[in-house]
Amino acid sequence: MERHHILILVENLPVPFDRRVWQEAQALNEAGHTVSVICPKGKGYDKSYEVIGGIHIYRHPLQEARSTAGYLREYCTALACQIYLSFRVRRRQRIDVIQACNPPDLMFLVALVHKLLFGTYFVFDHHDLSPELYVSKFGRMDFLYRALCFLERQTFRMADASIATNETFRDIAVARGGMHPNQVIVVKSYPEPAKFQRIAADPSLVVPGKHLVGYIGIMGEQDGVDTLVRAMAEILYARKRDDVHCIIIGDGPELKRLQTMAAALDLGRSVHFTGYLSGPSLMAHLSALDLGVIPDPPNDFNDKLSMNKVFEYMMLGLPFVQFNLRQATREAGSAALVLAEHSPRALADGILELIDDPERRKDMGLAGRAIAEREFQWPAEARQYVGAYQNLFRSRLSLNGQRHYPAS
Predict the structure, then answer these.
(1) Which of 37, 91, 145, 287 could form an S-S bond across to 201 if both were Cys, CB 3.0 to 4.6 Å?
(2) Does the structure show a pLDDT above 60 at 405?
(3) Do 128 and 218 belong to one domain?
(4) Which range of residues forms the domain containing residue 114?
């Protein structure tokens, strides 16, 4: 197989912290391709340039935004850095493909420059629904919302192929993005089984007579972790239950506000924020949990997402509580208790319902684990992903200027 050079652009998370992007980069590298990544600094990854496992990583500074104007500054600054670094990458080696991982839907502009000047292919790795994300954060469908819809359409229009995180995203690429079905392939974000297994629980978290619930993930406005914090206050003070404790694992723009909220609600005895964890420390914390929580609120954005938390809880055989989210409910099956009402009180009810029924928790955990062992296979997804590139490289422009789409 011919060796190609693929440049991956990421704006919102550093690599290798971004698990999906890192798995994709490794899959391409293992298939014999050269891989470079441009991403922001952060999460302990602050070198401007380094090579990890044969993958070249270029990083730029990024100030995370908290307002509409802040997002505009963040995205424009990141775009300028990406364009500059992309030419630095090209000076090292010719770029055959640029893959952009949204949000935001501005990175097609970087690829456009290289496509016009050098004929570089463009692959869109569709992680998030930027228009729906804007509405979930700001609650309005204004000029900026329409601008995001326009940018999304232009991204799809320019893409030679699109990688969708689930079937819903694939349908959006075809119906909303106007892509040919054979240009779109689904690659799900499953953890690697060998790296996501139960180990001995952190002994500091195992307290006789206490039950431990937990959350893992990024903490942004759209993630609903404040609902979990308020549910813990409901459990401790309204239900008079001091036998349920909670750990919240991860980082994000809402972390400080959530910590302040927990302190104001006097939850110091019951809620602990661990910050970002990885490797054995992460697995030791997750292995101590009796129950996982997915507090993301139902809305048009969350309803379509495949959430890493769902896959991770199920791979560990951990039952969990969630609100009624269409995609997450479909993927969780009987591993989740799905709550019809979105409120801290309803979440508290769901947590206590399962805490007080250990047999049901056991059955749910086994059901989730069985689904994960049968379906959550990253090696199969990696083959799909690399196959999308093989199809792309086989495609050629016909004499009349129409692209031939290989059979899927």
Answers:
(1) 287
(2) no
(3) no
(4) 5-190+378-394
Taking the C-alpha atoms of residue 120 and residue 291, their distance in angstroms, rounded to an integer, is 47
Q: Are residues 44 and 151 in the same domain?
A: yes
Whether 113 and 229 share a structural domain: no
Say if residue 180 is in the same domain as residue 138. yes
Quickly list H helices, 234-377: 255-264, 279-286, 308-315, 326-332, 344-355, 358-375
Per DSSP, 403 falls in state B
Residues 6+ apart with CB under 8 A from 38: 7, 8, 9, 10, 58, 59, 60, 81, 82, 85, 86, 89
pLDDT band at 65 (very low <50, low <70, confident <90, very high): low
pLDDT tens digits, one per residue of 221-272: 889 999 999 999 999 999 999 999 999 999 988 999 999 999 999 999 899 9
The rounded distance, in Å, linking the Cα atoms of 62 and 10 is: 12
290: region left, alpha or beta (phi > 0 left; psi from -120 to 50 alpha): alpha
CB 268 within 8 A of CB 246: no
Dihedral sign, Cα of residue 339, residue 343, residue 344, residue 345 = negative
165 shares a domain with 212: no
Closest CA to 165 of 155, 157, 173: 173
pLDDT greater than 50 at residue 399: no
Is the distance from CB of 304 to CB of 135 less than 8 angstroms? Answer: no
